[in-house]
Amino acid sequence: MTFSKIGVIGAGVMGVGVAQDLAQCGLQTVLLDVNTGVLDKALKTIADNVRLGAMLNRTAETEPVETVLGRITPTVDYAPLAAVDFVVENVVEKPAIKEPVYHRLDAVCPPHCVFAVNTSAISITRVAGWTNRPAQVVGMHFMNPVPMKKLVEVIRGFHTSDPTIETARAFLAALGKKAVVVNDMPGFVSNRVLMLTVNEAVFVVQDQVASAADVDKIFKGCFGHKMGPLETADLIGLDTILYSLEVLYESYNDPKFRPAPLLKKMVDAGLHGRKSGRGFYQYPNM
Ligand SMILES: NC(=O)c1ccc[n+]([C@@H]2O[C@H](COP(=O)([O-])OP(=O)(O)OC[C@H]3O[C@@H](n4cnc5c(N)ncnc54)[C@H](O)[C@@H]3O)[C@@H](O)[C@H]2O)c1
What we know:
By secondary structure, this protein is of the alpha/beta class. The longest helix is centred in the first third of the chain and has 21 residues, at about 35-55. The protein contains eleven helices and eight strands. Helix 1 crosses helix 2, helix 7 crosses helix 9 and helix 7 packs across helix 10 (about 240-250). The protein folds into two domains: about 5-185, Rossmann fold, CATH 3.40.50.720; about 190-275, N-(1-d-carboxylethyl)-l-norvaline Dehydrogenase, domain 2 (Orthogonal Bundle), CATH 1.10.1040. Strands 3-2-1-4-5-6-7-8 form an eight-stranded mixed sheet. The chain has helices spanning about 15-25, 35-55, 65-70, 95-110, 125-130, 160-175, 190-205, 210-225, 230-235, 240-250, 260-270, and strands at about 5-10, 30, 70-75, 85-90, 115, 135-140, 150-155, 180-185. It is globular. Nicotinamide-adenine-dinucleotide binds next to helix 1, helix 4 and helix 10.
């Protein structure tokens, strides 16, 4: 199976990672976001990441930054998506923002095009209902940072067909990645569990049981985790954590998913984690 051109929608934390990975694997990529400022920042981040990767990995042959960037077409216009075979959508984790994007994609993308939904928690069956091609909609929950993570949680929605699952596997194989295919329920496997852990860790800090650093120390030192839950939250983005919890809370109608008030307060204050320079920790170079 070959993919001549891929659409990547949203150029934030995840869209940047997906576009970089695609371009470094030799795939032509159309990268769409709402304005050119976001796209310029995304291309700069990709260039920095490619340079840093080359510095850290001197033994491997690395293509020049210009070659990698040359495979990415930034756009605020949907017209170039008429030529793509596969789309990875990575816009903000809010159904009200994602839904109109799918209406536009459905209208412009060719009939054979598969839509891969990169979401933390939104049901894939729900997203598929926003299109006229529900059999060609599949969940593709990439991990962050995308180029370094070789396993992807792939979600089969109610109508997702077997050929779509095979296309998703082939797409991931082209990126050197493997899939674990799971059935659709909000949050899937990873975030149904992880979001509860992160949220409870925020409650622990809110209740002054321990500092964020001590919470993370316990998970790393006692359980052997590479990162603690609050470092993970900063990496994901505290806004994305909050929106994911809101989706889970609304989807299951279960109070166990209610977001910690401290999390809401931090997001309101603009503390979105690494991407904003401050979350539970400070990131002076961001
Ligand atoms: N951050 C993570 O670790 C992570 C991991 C897996 C999945 N996800 C999921 O990936 C998706 C994106 O998350 P992120 O962390 O990249 O968020 P982000 O906030 O960093 O980026 C979202 C991007 O979407 C863009 N956007 C907003 N409205 C748009 C529209 N109408 N059309 C096109 N672009 C639009 C924004 O300008 C922004 O650049 C979310 O659904 C999230 O749940 C995130």
